[in-house]
Amino acid sequence: MTTTLTDRPARARERLRRDAARVLLTNWTGTSTVPSHTLYPHQWSWDSAFIAIGLRHLSPRRAQRELESLVGAQWADGRIPHIVFSPRVPLDAYFPSPDFWRSSTAGRAAGAPAGTETSGIVQPPVHALAAALVHERDPATSRRRGFLERLYPRLAAWHDYLLRDRDFTGHGLASVVHPWEPGMDNSPCWDGPLRRITPAPPESFRRVDLTHGDAAARPTDLDYGRYVRLAADYRDHGYRDAGTPHPFAVEDPGFNALLIASEHALAGIAEQVGRDPRPHRERAEALTDALVRHLWQPKAGMFLCRDVRGDSVIEDRSVTGLLPLVVPSLPGHVVDALLGTVTGEHFGLGTGTRLVASYDLRGPAFDPARYWRGPAWFNINWLLERGLRLHGAASEADALRRAVLDAAGGSRFAEYVDPYTGEGHGANRFSWTAAVALDLLAGTAEEDGR
Residue 207's pLDDT is what? Predict the structure, then answer.
């Protein structure tokens, strides 16, 4: 039998913990943590949430600052932008850069901050869950600093924005308006909706990502041109959700599942700060009902995305359709079907692969190395480990935790890995990989102590 890192003595896990801590300390900028100094040299929204979850095991105060710095760039309409740009980083180090987004001018009517440059789109709303976990790690420091008291109104405004301004169908679900918003940028799920988009001319942008990454593992030039076109059109409409055509609009199950999980977390935060938790619990239940009613597909055994503009289900099976496992009050038959799908032929957890791939293993667009078209991602597998454990699949969760830790250490904390071989791709020493490894190691240590 092959011996894995998590079967070895505690000293091997301590070595992994030190290595993961070194990644986060190296990527810390003084106020926040970059995902990667080369490929992603600014602050990213959902990255910071996962980073804070890991940082809480090293420095709860620094984990609090990670989230505080992010929400400090929140727009007046409530949105938390997907990038907060550092003025210390040269404009040519990343594209789209601040002079493309022009948030402080183009986004003025939508409430963009005047003194901080950001992007104008968003990422998955996992922040309240992260804030709750950070508080739990050191409640005394959190209370002394007024951490939850300061974050609560901002997180509530963030959720309000999504359900007020992004419910395009009346289903009670938030829509995403750009492939970068659900976080799974290059998923095959977006191929159909993207065909409606005329790409920006190649000469109108420069792909800095190819300087630090293999072109074979990144989005194609055609897709990138479509991403740029969508972002530019949104910008030119003042980042307004009402009145903008939104040729790309999708109800994404993973995005909404994280909103539900964060609404539950926000209910707990409300209790901590002396506010009424009932509105958050009621909204979480309403969102859960809407998610099941509109995006659950029994024949697929999982949730599928809906193309809002085409008013049609997107048939591709993506890992986003498994993320509702993080929702605590799913109907039992839905949970049972999801557990079967995770381990079945399309995702193969524990049978074909040790990590859950980002896309259907049997799908026509599957590619084990190309960005979000097949590789396994560490933050997603952290969420699924949590979901499996939540719904009683403890042995599967334990195996997935071991696999995540082995792959993180074996790939030098790669951005993502081949789900079959564990070969690393993208950036090395990637922050959220190190962060979720720290969190899973902490769980292992707690079990050892029992």
Answer: 81
